[in-house]
Design brief:
The complex is a heterodimer of chains A (112) and B (113).
Chain A lengths: L2 E4 L4 E4 L4 E3 L1 E4 L5 E7 L5 E7 L5 E4 L2 E4 L9 E3 L8 E8 L6 E3 L3 E6 L1
Parallel strand pairs in A: 2-12
Antiparallel strand pairs in A: 1-4, 3-9, 5-6, 5-10, 7-8, 8-9, 10-11, 10-12
Chain B lengths: L3 E4 L2 E4 L5 E7 L5 E7 L5 E7 L6 E2 L6 E3 L9 E3 L8 E8 L8 E2 L3 E5 L1
Parallel strand pairs in B: 2-11
Antiparallel strand pairs in B: 1-3, 3-8, 4-5, 4-9, 5-6, 7-8, 9-10, 9-11
Classes of the chains: A mainly beta (112), B mainly beta (113).
Chain lengths: 112, 113
């Protein structure tokens, strides 16, 4: 079945540092890929998405590129802020009737 | 403002007790979902509903029940058969099941006394 694997956290960075959160997936066919973000005490919000190979999703300074050859969708940001502290979930929408499959989440903590 | 409202924010269950988590949306979405979130794990799908009066089991439906009598509402009951109910429960909706963007509520933390 479909699966998503994310790097374990927490990831702790200083403000203005470069961020990478790794995400790899296993799926049949050609899934769509997503990053969702969960701020403390809240539900998840869609951060960005990519629907086909080599697509780049971007939003709020975050980017991720759909790499079919490496089955990856790593999240990057050039300069993180304290307000980026949250849990980030990688997800895919694949073969099972478009149900989303989520990774385990990666907690990011940004220190001033 | 449109959105999804979950209540209560915190809920405690005694042994052998059924509890019901509320989820209401005013987004006019057809599809609604319940996920369970455990620390360090991804979200796991409990139940989902594409239209009123219809719902399907997700990956971990045992010990849970749902109803979809109104488009706006999708309550989840955690029954006494669920032996490990302590978790964060998230409700979500989408315009259609084929619509990949989900809108989430702010969640309910359920704990066992």
């Amino acid at each position: 079945g479909d699966s998503v694997t994310q790097m374990e956290g927490p990831v702790t960075l200083s403000e203005e540092a470069f961020l990478t959160i790794n995400c790899t997936y296993t799926a049949t066919g050609y899934p769509s890929l997503f990053w969702y973000v969960q701020y403390p005490g809240e539900g998840l919000q869609l951060l960005l998405k990519a629907t086909k190979a080599d697509d780049k999703g971007s939003n709020k300074g975050f980017e991720a590129t759909y790499r079919k050859e490496t089955t990856s969708f790593h999240l990057e940001k050039g300069s993180v802020q304290v307000s980026d502290s949250a849990v980030y979930f990688c997800a895919l929408s694949g073969s099972a009737g478009n149900m989303l499959t989520f990774g385990g989440g990666t907690r990011l903590m940004v220190k001033p | 403002d449109g959105g999804i409202t979950q209540s209560p924010k915190y809920l405690f269950r005694k042994e052998g007790q059924n509890v019901t988590l509320s989820c209401e949306q005013n987004l006019n979405h057809d599809a609604m979902y319940w996920y369970r979130q455990d620390p360090g794990q991804g979200l796991r799908l409990i139940y989902y509903s594409q239209i009123v009066n219809d719902f399907q089991k997700g990956d971990i439906a045992e010990g849970y029940s749902v109803s979809r009598e109104k488009k706006e509402s999708f309550p989840l009951t955690v029954t006494s058969a669920q032996k490990n109910p302590t978790a964060f429960y998230l409700c979500a909706s989408s315009f259609r099941q084929e619509d990949e963007k989900l809108f989430f509520g702010s969640g309910t933390q359920l704990s066992v006394l």
